[in-house]
Amino acid sequence: MRAVQYRTIGGAPEVVEIERPTPGPGQVLLEVTAAGICHSDDFVMNLPAEQYTYGLPLTLGHEGAGRVVELGPGAEGVEVGTNVVVYGPWGCGVCHLCAQGKENYCPRAAELGIYPPGLGAPGALAEFMVVDSPRHLVPIGDLDPVKTVPLTDAGLTPYHAIKRSLGKLRAGSAAVVIGTGGLGHLAIQILRALSPARVIALDVTDDKLALATAVGAHDVVLSDAGAAANVRRLLGGRGAQLVLDFVGAQPTIDTAMAVADVESDVTIVGITNTPAAAQVGFFRQAYEASVTVPYWGSRSELIELVDLAHQGVFDVHTETFAMADAPAAYERLAAGTLTGRAVVVP
Ligand code: NAD
Ligand code: ZN
Ligand code: ZN
């Protein structure tokens, strides 16, 4: 079968021919119907050898959708032919955090050699993929796999980040979204669906800001050195109750801290290869502002998101690519010229 692999440190992803996998005990084989491309892949492929821990060659793709085609011995609870999306941050399944569905925070996964598909285990950028357990599959019924696969990360990560702050998003509140790409354009929609907050979106080009407006941002602001002042002007001098930074570079973290109101949440989702940090402490941050770095989301949250998708809540913007063009999609991602999520259809 064909797959997209990262094979050499610093190299570009390659389309290669590899053996079709067979599901082992308890596992499920999917015929992949769609696989999303995430900016985190770019982070991973820019790590120097001494920080790279994902194994080589690595079949990429941690956003996967597929059709169940084969069950390994003893695998139960899902039927051949079912259309599903894959919950990616696999955990041990038995610890206290996994018992709550928070496998993204399983403290035992690494020591047990359990890694997400595309981030250690073979990923979804292939014609077929093996999923470790039926519990990692969420049926999607007649939803379009291309429009649904981004929910597994580009949707799930902001959904989790927003849900934990919903109590602060009362009427009259504001939420700032920095970076309106794959994750950010879904964050805007999740905010609009779940809260009465005024949503202000920041990005670096008019095209990106146009997408933000199209998916429901109340206001848009260019992300430059004057951004924080411009956001505060829009808010009558006040700050926002939730700031989501989907870039995570020093300039955006500084903007995030500068627009945070008292008792707000500053949630840094973006990951960069250059060190960046929030300045915290007296005179550096708003009183009782909490700074946090969430990772992905829980199994139950993905089920909730798929329910929202069935209600027609999301307008997921995608650009689709054939597998042969996946390397070009990664180039577009790195260049910042994609609109919404890049999705590969094998
Ligand atoms: P993306 O490339 O689709 O979107 C990033 C957006 O940020 C683009 O629209 C880009 O124009 C914009 N941007 C770049 N520089 C900016 C600046 N200075 N100010 C404002 N906007 C700017 O990326 P994505 O796939 O949506 O991922 C976003 C980030 O989230 C990445 O860093 C990724 O690694 C990270 N991520 C984290 C988690 C997690 O669990 N914490 C999960 C998924 C992705
Ligand atoms: Zn990701
Ligand atoms: Zn666990």
UniProtKB/TrEMBL annotation:
The keyword Transit peptide is assigned to this record: no
Catalytic activity: a primary alcohol + NAD(+) = an aldehyde + NADH + H(+); a secondary alcohol + NAD(+) = a ketone + NADH + H(+)
GTP-binding listed as a keyword: no
Keywords per UniProt: Metal-binding, Oxidoreductase, Zinc
Enoyl reductase (ER) domain location: 10-344
Cofactor: Zn(2+)
Cited InterPro entries: ADH-like_C, ADH-like_N, ADH_Zn_CS, ER, GroES-like_sf, NAD(P)-bd_dom_sf
EC numbers: 1.1.1.1
Molecular function per GO: alcohol dehydrogenase (NAD+) activity; zinc ion binding
Coiled coil: none
Class of enzymatic activity (EC top level): oxidoreductase
GO cellular component: cytoplasm
Domain of life: Bacteria
Family to which the UniProt record says this protein belongs: Belongs to the zinc-containing alcohol dehydrogenase family.
PANTHER family (alphabetical): ALCOHOL DEHYDROGENASE 1-RELATED, VACUOLAR PROTEIN SORTING-ASSOCIATED PROTEIN 11
Protein name: alcohol dehydrogenase
Taxonomic lineage of the native organism: Bacteria, Bacillati, Actinomycetota, Actinomycetes, Kineosporiales
